[in-house]
Amino acid sequence: MKKSIFALLLSVFTLSLGAYSPSGMESCGPEYDPIPGETVKRPVICSDCGVNSGWLVVDIKDGIYYYKCLNCNSIDKG
């Protein structure tokens, strides 16, 4: 009986640590807003060249971000 209680407490403790670990927070997106001139990764494939090599934040207007594809220099808003 003591082993099962210990196993239960250990699993609850382990799960609670996972909820607050930095690696668990990464999937939620950036903790800050990117600024113009910063290179970011986005889950978007460029509609012009078809690759996702990275994006450069070029401007922010009215809360809309404008990104430049690092592969073909195409501008995308998101």
Description:
The chain is 29% helix and 23% strand. The protein is of the alpha+beta class. It has one domain. The protein is elongated.
Task: Show the helix and strand layout.
Blueprint: H1 2-20, H2 22-25, E1 39-40, E2 55-61, E3 64-69, E4 75-77
Antiparallel strand pairs: 1-2, 2-3, 3-4
Structural class: alpha+beta
Q: Write down the overall mean pLDDT.
A: 77
Helix content: 25-40%
Widest beta sheet: strand line-up: 1-2-3-4
β-strand amount = 15-25%
Q: Whole-number radius of gyration?
A: 20 Å
Give, in order, the helices and strands.
HHEEEE
Q: Identify the overall geometry.
A: elongated
Instruction: Give the strand tally.
Output: 4
Question: DSSP helix count?
Answer: 2
pLDDT < 50 stretches? 19-27
- Give the end-to-end Cα distance, rounded to a whole number of Å: 55 Å
Number of domains: 1
Q: What's the main sheet like? A: 4 strands, antiparallel
Quick summary:
It contains two helices and four strands; from the N terminus they run ααββββ. It has 78 residues and is of the alpha+beta class.
